[in-house]
C-alpha cells in the first residue's frame, strides 16, 4: 500500500503537491471544535482517512474522502455528522470565499465579500438588481453570523447546497449558507418601506432555522426570476381550447418550480357525444397522459422536478379507469408515470357507504352542475339525477354499490399509494373564503383548499415554523418559548404577504388569483421532534393536547397578524362576503360542517385563548383569504434539521434517499437520552441490528420505548387524532401521511371512515409496511475498499460508491384501535422519569407587541457507510414519487 509520504495531491490549478497530513489533521480538529472527545474523534478520522488515499487524488476528492470517513462513523456517534457538515461547509468557504480561509478570519471574509457577491450576481444576470440598490449593504454584511452554519446537519447542508443555493453557469457554488439566507431575506423585503431592517429580521429567523420559507421561495427569492409561489390549483373546462391552454399553463407553472393540483372532473366521459363534429369523446384519461408526459419534459435542471396531482370526483363515469392510472400493467397510454391521483369525495358518498346503498356514476356532460355543488345541496341534486336515471331520462350512467367502489378505492390506495383520499364537503363546508366559488380540488400535496374557475388558477404561498427551535430548557424543565413562537408566526405572515407582491407568474390567471385573494399557508414541522424532547409518546393524550394547544396559539397569532396587516395595507379584494367578514374563525366552521352533514364531527372542541375579541377584529378586515396549511416539508425539514410536518419517526437509524443523495440518519434525541442514562455504548450495535427498532432492544428502558415508537408501531388512529386536533385551527388542510402495518381492507375501511367522521379534510400517502418490507436488501460495505472501485494505489479517480441498505424487516403489527375508541395512554405511563412541564400558552394580550461532493457533478450518490459486516439496512419508506413531488413545491 502506498504510504502517505509518497502521495501527491492534484490542486485546483492542476499543480501537484505532497499530501500534507498535518494540514488535514488541523482541518479535522477545527471541524471537531466544541465536541466531547474532539481530539479522539479527529484522530480517528485522520487515521481512517489514510486508507482511502491514492497518488494523484485531487484536492476536491480529498475533501470528499474526509467527509466520507466522518459520515461512516455517524452510526456509532451522531457527533460525526456535525464534523461532516462543518467539513462540507468549509468546501463552500473555499469555493466562494477563497482558499486558505481560517476559522479566525471567516467572519471578516463574510463581511468583506458580501457586497461583491451581490454585485457579481447582478452582473451575471442571476440576481435582482434591486439587491444592490435598495439596501444598506454594510449594515447587512455586519449582521451575517457564520457561527449559525453550525446549526445545519450534514443532510441539511448538502440539501441547501444542491437544491437551493445559486451556482454559476458551470454549476460552481456562488453562495455560502449565510449569503444564501440573507439573499432570500432581501428578496422577501423588496417592497418594505425599510427593506434593510425587515431583511435583517427575516434573516435572523431563517438563519436560526426557526422558520423557513418553502422551496420555490428559497430557490428564487432575490434572483432575476422571482417566481416565489409554491402551489397552483387549476381545473380543466370541458372544451378543447381550455384543455389545450391548461397544458400550456402546466408547462409554464412547472418551469417556474410550482407544484400543481389539476381537476378533470368537468371533462365529459369516454363515449360522450361531441356535437361540433358528430363524434364521441375519448374521455379525460388520454388528456391526463398527455399532461403527464409534459411534466417529464420539463426537468428544471435538476433543482426541482415537475410534479402534479390529478383530482376526480368519484361519481364520474370514467372513475374506474382513473383508479387504474397508477397501475404498472396495462396500456401505457392510459397510465400516468409521473403525475399522482386523488379522489374528491362527497359526504353523500360516505353516507351511502355507511347505509350500504347504491352509488351512481354519471357523465359530466349531463350533470355538470354537480361539480359546483357541495354538502346538502350536492346531496339533493344528486338524488334528483338518480331519480332521472331510473326514469330513463339520462343517456349514460352506471350503478354500483357504494361499498364496492369504496373498497376498490382502498385496494388501489393499498397497492399503488393512489388515489389519495380528500373530502370535498369537509373542505367546502369549513371554508372561510367561501364567497369566491366552489373548491374543486386540493394541491399537489393535499394541504391547499382554494376555489378556482376558468379565470382563476388558485395560488398559495408557503412557509413552516420549526417547532423544535422554539423549545427551551433542559429535558425535565423543557418548555415552549411562547413569546418567540408568536414573533416567528407574525413575521412569517408578513413575509408571506410580501411575497405575493414580489412574485412573478407567467400565467395571468394565477397572477390574478394571487392579487385578489392573497392566500398564504403557514405550517409547522418538527412535531415529533418536539414530543420526543418533551418525553411524550406520539400516541398519547398529552401529545394530542400539545398539538391542539400549539396550533391554536399559532392560528390565533397568524389571524391577528393578518388583521393587523389589513389595517396597515388594506384587506384582500374578495374579503367582503367571506365568512371572515362575518366574524368567523376556523373553529367556528366545525359547527357549520356539522349542521350541513347532520352528524357530529368527532373532535375535541376545547379552546384556551380569547377568540371572541379576535372574531370582532377580523370583521374589520383580513389581509389574506387563508392563513394556514401544513405541508409535508420533506425537503425544508432536512435543512431545518427536524422531523417533517406532523410525521412520526420512520426508524431510529435509517438511510434516506433524496434528490440530493442518500444519507444515514440517526435519531439524535434518542442517542441523547441513551447517553444521559449511560446506555448508548451498550445498545448501539443491537439497535443497528434491529434496524432502529428500540422495542427489540431488551435493555432499553420501557419509558423510552414508548416515546420512541416508530411509524408502523404506532396505531394509525394516532395520526388521525393528531391531524383532527390540528385541523380544527387550520383554515386550509394538512398533508397527512398514514402508516399501516396490516393489509386488512376492513381495517382500512374503518380507518378512513374515522378520518372523515373526525373532520380530517385530506389524507396523503399511505405507507404499507408489507410493501416496504418486500424491498428489503442486505448490504456489505468495507471502508477500506477502493475509493471508486479501483485499487487505492492506482492514480485513477474514483467512479462509484455503495449505498446503505434496503428497507425495514417486518415489525410486530400494532392492532389499530377501533374507530372512535380511545388511543391514549394514561399520563403516568408516559415515562418513569419526571414528565416535563409544557407551559400553557399565554394569552395573546400578554405578548409584547450524505454525501461528499463529486468532482464531476453537483448531484450526489452514495457513500460508504458501514464497517465490514453484513447489515440489513432500514430505508425511509418515502415513495420515490413522493420525494419528487415534495421536492417540487417545498
Short description:
The chain is an alpha/beta fold and about 900 residues long. Helix content is about 40%, strand content about 10%.
User: What kind of sheet is the major sheet?
Assistant: 8 strands, mixed
Label the overall shape. Answer: globular
Beta-strand level of the residues, as a percent range?
5-15%
Low-confidence stretches: 773-837, 845-885
Instruction: Enumerate how many helices there are, as a single number.
Output: 31
Terminal CA distance reads 47 Å
Task: Describe the protein.
- This protein is of the alpha/beta class.
- It has a domain at 643-744 and 759-889.
- It is 40% helix and 11% strand.
- The protein contains 31 helices and 23 strands.
- Strands 4, 5, 6, 9, 10, 13, 14 and 17 form an eight-stranded mixed β-sheet that branches.
- Helix 3 (59-72) packs antiparallel against helix 4 (79-97) and helix 11 (240-255) packs parallel to helix 12 (284-297).
- The two termini are 47 Å apart.
- It catalyses: a 2'-deoxyribonucleoside 5'-diphosphate + [thioredoxin]-disulfide + H2O = a ribonucleoside 5'-diphosphate + [thioredoxin]-dithiol.
- Belongs to the ribonucleoside diphosphate reductase large chain family.
Amino acid at each position: 500500500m502506498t504510504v502517505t509520504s509518497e502521495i501527491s495531491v492534484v490542486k485546483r490549478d492542476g499543480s501537484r503537491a505532497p499530501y500534507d497530513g498535518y494540514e488535514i489533521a488541523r482541518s479535522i480538529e477545527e471541524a471537531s471544535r466544541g465536541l466531547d472527545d474532539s481530539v479522539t474523534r479527529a484522530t480517528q478520522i485522520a487515521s481512517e482517512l489514510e486508507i482511502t488515499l491514492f497518488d494523484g487524488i485531487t484536492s476536491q476528492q480529498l475533501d470528499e474522502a474526509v467527509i466520507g470517513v466522518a459520515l461512516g462513523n455517524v452510526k456509532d456517534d451522531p457527533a460525526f455528522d456535525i464534523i461532516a457538515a462543518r467539513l462540507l461547509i468549509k468546501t463552500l468557504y473555499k469555493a466562494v470565499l477563497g482558499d486558505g480561509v481560517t476559522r479566525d478570519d471567516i467572519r471578516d471574509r463574510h463581511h468583506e465579500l458580501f457586497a461583491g457577491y451581490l454585485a457579481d450576481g447582478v452582473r451575471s444576470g442571476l440576481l435582482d438588481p434591486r439587491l444592490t440598490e435598495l439596501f444598506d449593504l454594510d449594515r447587512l454584511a455586519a449582521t451575517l453570523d457564520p457561527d449559525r452554519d453550525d446549526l445545519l446537519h450534514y443532510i441539511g447542508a448538502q440539501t441547501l447546497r444542491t437544491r437551493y443555493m445559486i451556482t454559476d453557469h458551470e454549476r460552481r457554488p456562488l453562495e455560502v449558507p449565510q449569503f444564501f439566507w440573507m439573499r432570500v431575506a432581501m428578496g422577501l423585503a423588496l417592497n418594505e418601506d425599510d427593506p434593510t431592517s425587515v431583511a435583517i429580521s427575516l434573516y435572523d429567523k431563517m438563519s436560526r432555522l426557526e422558520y423557513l420559507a418553502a422551496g420555490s421561495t428559497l430557490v428564487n427569492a432575490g434572483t432575476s426570476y422571482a417566481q416565489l409561489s409554491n402551489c397552483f390549483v387549476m381545473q380543466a373546462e370541458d372544451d378543447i381550447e381550455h384543455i389545450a391552454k391548461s397544458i400550456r399553463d402546466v408547462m409554464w407553472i412547472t418551469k417556474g418550480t410550482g407544484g400543481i393540483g389539476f381537476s378533470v372532473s368537468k371533462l365529459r366521459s369516454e363515449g360522450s357525444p361531441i356535437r361540433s363534429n358528430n363524434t364521441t369523446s375519448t374521455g379525460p384519461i388520454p388528456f391526463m397522459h398527455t399532461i403527464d408526459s409534459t411534466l417529464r419534459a420539463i426537468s428544471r435542471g435538476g433543482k426541482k422536478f415537475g410534479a402534479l396531482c390529478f383530482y376526480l370526483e368519484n361519481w364520474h363515469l370514467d372513475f374506474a379507469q382513473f383508479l387504474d392510472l397508477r397501475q404498472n400493467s396495462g396500456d401505457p397510454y392510459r397510465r400516468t408515470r409521473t403525475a399522482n391521483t386523488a379522489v374528491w369525495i362527497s359526504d353523500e358518498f360516505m353516507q351511502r357507504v355507511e347505509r350500504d346503498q347504491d352509488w351512481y356514476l354519471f357523465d359530466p356532460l349531463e350533470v355538470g352542475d354537480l361539480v359546483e355543488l357541495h354538502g346538502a345541496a350536492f346531496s339533493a341534486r344528486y338524488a334528483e339525477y338518480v331519480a332521472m336515471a331510473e326514469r330513463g331520462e339520462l343517456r349514460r350512467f352506471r350503478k354500483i354499490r357504494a361499498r364496492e367502489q369504496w373498497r376498490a378505492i382502498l385496494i388501489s390506495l393499498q397497492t399503488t399509494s393512489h388515489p389519495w383520499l380528500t373530502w370535498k364537503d369537509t373542505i367546502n363546508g369549513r371554508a372561510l373564503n367561501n364567497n369566491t366559488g366552489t373548491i374543486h380540488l386540493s394541491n399537489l400535496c393535499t394541504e391547499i383548499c382554494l376555489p378556482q374557475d376558468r379565470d382563476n388558477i388558485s395560488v398559495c404561498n408557503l412557509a413552516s415554523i420549526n417547532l423544535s427551535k422554539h423549545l427551551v430548557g433542559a429535558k425535565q424543565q423543557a418548555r415552549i418559548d411562547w413569546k418567540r413562537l408568536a414573533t416567528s408566526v407574525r413575521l412569517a405572515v408578513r413575509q408571506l404577504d410580501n411575497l405575493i407582491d414580489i412574485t412573478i407568474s407567467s400565467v395571468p390567471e394565477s397572477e390574478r388569483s394571487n392579487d385578489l385573494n392573497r392566500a398564504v399557508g403557514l405550517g409547522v414541522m418538527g412535531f415529533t421532534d418536539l414530543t420526543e424532547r418533551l418525553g411524550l409518546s406520539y400516541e398519547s393524550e398529552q401529545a394530542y393536547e400539545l398539538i391542539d394547544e400549539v396550533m391554536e396559539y399559532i392560528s390565533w397569532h397568524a389571524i391577528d397578524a393578518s388583521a393587523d396587516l389589513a389595517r396597515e395595507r388594506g384587506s384582500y379584494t374578495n374579503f367582503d362576503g367571506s365568512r371572515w367578514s362575518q366574524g368567523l374563525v376556523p373553529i367556528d366552521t366545525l359547527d357549520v360542517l356539522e349542521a350541513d352533514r347532520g352528524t357530529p364531527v368527532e373532535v375535541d372542541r376545547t379552546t384556551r385563548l380569547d377568540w371572541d375579541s379576535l372574531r370582532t377584529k377580523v370583521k374589520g378586515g383580513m389581509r389574506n383569504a387563508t392563513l394556514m396549511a401544513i405541508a409535508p416539508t420533506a425537503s425544508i425539514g432536512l435543512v431545518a434539521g427536524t422531523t417533517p410536518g406532523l410525521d412520526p419517526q420512520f426508524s431510529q437509524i435509517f438511510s434516506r434517499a433524496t434528490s440530493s443523495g442518500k444519507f444515514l440518519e440517526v435519531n439524535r434525541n434518542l442517542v441523547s437520552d441513551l447517553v444521559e442514562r449511560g446506555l448508548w455504548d451498550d445498545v448501539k450495535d443491537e439497535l443497528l441490528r434491529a434496524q432502529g427498532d428500540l422495542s427489540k432492544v431488551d435493555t432499553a428502558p420501557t419509558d423510552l420505548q414508548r416515546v420512541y415508537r416508530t411509524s408502523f408501531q404506532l396505531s394509525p388512529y394516532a395520526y388521525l387524532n393528531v391531524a383532527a386536533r390540528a385541523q380544527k385551527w387550520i383554515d386550509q388542510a394538512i398533508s397527512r401521511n398514514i402508516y399501516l402495518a396490516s393489509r386488512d381492507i376492513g381495517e382500512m375501511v374503518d380507518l378512513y371512515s374515522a378520518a372523515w367522521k373526525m373532520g380530517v379534510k385530506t389524507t396523503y400517502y399511505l405507507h404499507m409496511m408489507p410493501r416496504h418490507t418486500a424491498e428489503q436488501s442486505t448490504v456489505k460495505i468495507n471502508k477500506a475498499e477502493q475509493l471508486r472501485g479501483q485499487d487505492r494505489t492506482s492514480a485513477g479517480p474514483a467512479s462509484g460508491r455503495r449505498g446503505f441498505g434496503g428497507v425495514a424487516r417486518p415489525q410486530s403489527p400494532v392492532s389499530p384501535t377501533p374507530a372512535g375508541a380511545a388511543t391514549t395512554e394514561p399520563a403516568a405511563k408516559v415515562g418513569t422519569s419526571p414528565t416535563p412541564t409544557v407551559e400553557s400558552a399565554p394569552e395573546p394580550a400578554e405578548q409584547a407587541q450524505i454525501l461528499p461532493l463529486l468532482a464531476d457533478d453537483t448531484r450526489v450518490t452514495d457513500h460508504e457507510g458501514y464497517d465490514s459486516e453484513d447489515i440489513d439496512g432500514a430505508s425511509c419508506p418515502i415513495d420515490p414519487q413522493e420525494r419528487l413531488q415534495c421536492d417540487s413545491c417545498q
